[in-house]
Amino acid sequence: MTATLVRFDGVSKSYDGRTRVVAELDLEIRRGEFLTLLGPSGSGKTTTLMMLAGFEDPTAGSITLEGARIDTVPPHRRNIGVVFQNYALFPHLSVAENLAFPLSIRRVPRAEIGRRVAAALSMVRLPGLGGRRPQQLSGGQQQRVALARALIFNPPLVLLDEPLGALDKQLREELQAEIRRIHAELGVTMVYVTHDQSEALTLSDRIAVFDQGRIQQLGTAQAVYETPANPFVAGFIGENNRLPATVLDATRLRLAEGSMLATLPHGLQAGAAALVSIRPERVLLEAAEAAPNAAAARVEEVVYLGDHCRLRMAWAGRTDFFAKLPRQQAGQVPQAGTTLRIAIPEAAIIVFPA
Amino acid sequence: MRRTNLLAAALIAPLLLLILGSFLVPVGLTLFRAVADREVVATLPETSAILAGWDGEGLPPEAAFAALAREAGAALQARRIGDLAQRLNFERTGLRTALLRVARAADRLAAPHAQSLPALDARWGERETWLLLQRAGGPTTALYLLRAMDATRTPQGEVRALPVEERLYRTLFLRTLGISLLVTALCVLLAYPVAAAIAGLRPPWSAVALTLVLIPFWSSVLVRSTAWFVLLQREGPVNGALQALGMLEAPVQMLGTRFAVVLALVHVLLPFAILPMHSVMKGLDGTFLRAAASLGANGPQRFLRVWLPLSLPGVLAGGAMVFLLSVGMYTAPALVGGDRDQMVAWFIANFMNRDVNWGMAAALSAYLLAMTGAMVGLVRVLTGGVAQAGLRG
């Protein structure tokens, strides 16, 4: 058994022959991992998933599963579980009949079907609901059934297409935990499509960030968040302040308004244009005089968010520089109009070539 | 709360009255005609009253004979004897003649009428005739309902099937049922793939296809049936084309056959099957099929286990629609069918227009209504489970 379960080789997809929804995609999906395809709508993530499921044909390239090409195999022979956003439970069948569907297609003996259906229901914590019709269940329960149905025939790979998109926040978090638990229990490989970056960070072993038909970055949640490969990834996952700058030397930049910024070695040529990305939560407030990149900044606006305050500040010639103030201790919230001493650690500054 | 209810009731009231006045009342009156028996009481009130007191043994008293002669004569003078003659003759052939003979001779008949009437026409000397007249005193009769099922009541009052050579209506209802079921089956089979194909089209083309389905509605059933009349003639285009293709050596008689009736009915009713099926199929989510495929179902399995059961409510609705319309269809069979291909509606029309026998027309209508009602009930029972599945739930 190799570590690679699925391999995309130069896969492209175009509907009109000109614009490519997915462009020359190379991707390896590791056995047993939870991989999330994250990106804005139209980025090609769903098309990639649908090509893997067999509902879309690649225009070019090849897809292999366990080393065998599957892009020419019809979807019903791929043995891949799929969970759809709108659940797609069959309304004319009961919950148990929905779960039994893939097993009876595979001619599993009746007694075993009954046993496996019961096991699947208890796995998704819906024991005893087999007799219900899907539409008698809540949205969260329906999605649990859909998940159980995609897993019950023991596919090596399960695809989830924005499965929690239709649920409210609380249910979504509950089901995220459930999916993580099931993934850990079964060791099945899961590929998950979402446009919700926090969902991707919560669930994934690895995240593939999609934009304009290409993978912009593939890595762990921490890698994608803390060392974004380009401004798109930095902007799509989490908040950031973006400031245009010019390279002075190996560890210093000059911001557009004239102030200097000390960074870690960034590898750009002196004189080159650069784009600086700074996460709001990495900005130090009420910093010591000697702190790196220390400066005075006026508080323009304060938004109180419970666990933290979001400050809009005037700094480096702009008035839309954001910083996050965690509420570790109860105390005064900074007032708009006051001036704070801020500092930005070198490690918090990400430099992109502009 | 109460006020809004009142307001709602007030807003609905006119519509309710309209439905009541234009639908329920006429249908109710028509159905009542199937059992109403008023001709004898209306035309021969005195005779009827005397007969009501008769014990049915032997012959009625002289007063009954006298009253009959007087009232029949008066009715003939006033030109309102026709309904009665029709009513009596329908129950027993020959009574028209017997009645009219008495009516014409009313002035000249000498007492005792109990002898002069039978002398004029022997039937007035038979107990059966008077029993019949007594029973026809109304206000209701089972005569028409029995006759519409090929049964009759003997003068002694027992219900008995008509002799085989006089039977007509049971065959007629079976024929109507048979033709309608055949037409329904053909329409469902033809409409299903069409509806599925239209449901699968993308927006501009689905509208175009639906318009094509609806185009036949732009012309009346009469025009479309007449078109078949032209097409199916011996020298018509269908025979011509089949001969030109070498499939026929000589023209075939197509008009006046069961084939022509079924063909015309299927053509006229097909849109009524397509539309409900299409509306159900259009509401079906395509991801059901994708889900079925991802679970391992191949094409036939996806169709049989997912698409067919989900589209079944549309099939039942379309089938029921076609059946209900087909059962009452008059124009198409009347135009392209032969004598042995006519359906119940043709007989109803005949009884109303030619025979002016409203009782029979109403009785046949009542059975037709019962037949369609039973079919609607059957479909409801069949769809009960499916409807509960709540396709859009």
TrEMBL record, chain A:
Keywords tagged on the record: ATP-binding, Nucleotide-binding, Transport
Superkingdom, taxonomy of origin: Bacteria
Domain ABC transporter: 6-237
GO MF annotations, alphabetized: ATP binding
SUPFAM superfamilies assigned to the protein according to its UniProt record, in alphabetical order: MOP-like, P-loop containing nucleoside triphosphate hydrolases
PROSITE patterns: ABC_TRANSPORTER_1, ABC_TRANSPORTER_2
InterPro entries associated with the record: AAA+_ATPase, ABC_SmlMolc_Importer, ABC_transporter-like_ATP-bd, ABC_transporter-like_CS, Mo/tungstate-bd_C_term_dom, P-loop_NTPase, Transp-assoc_OB_typ2
Pfam families for the chain: ABC_tran, TOBE_2
Protein name: ABC transporter ATP-binding protein
TrEMBL record, chain B:
Keyword terms of this UniProt record: Cell membrane, Membrane, Transmembrane, Transmembrane helix, Transport
InterPro entries xref list: MetI-like, MetI-like_sf
Top-rank taxon: Bacteria
Chief location category: membrane
Keyword Cell membrane found: yes
SUPFAM superfamilies xrefs: MetI-like (SSF161098)
Membrane topology: Multi-pass membrane protein
Protein name (database record): ABC transporter permease
PANTHER family: ABC TRANSPORTER PERMEASE PROTEIN, INNER MEMBRANE ABC TRANSPORTER PERMEASE PROTEIN YDCU-RELATED-RELATED
Transmembrane portions of the chain: 172-195, 207-232, 252-275, 310-336, 356-382
One Pfam entry name: BPD_transp_1
Keyword set includes Transport: yes
Chain ranges of the ABC transmembrane type-1 domain: 173-379
Coiled coil region boundaries: none
Compartments (UniProt record): Cell membrane
Family as reported in the entry's similarity comment: Belongs to the binding-protein-dependent transport system permease family. CysTW subfamily.
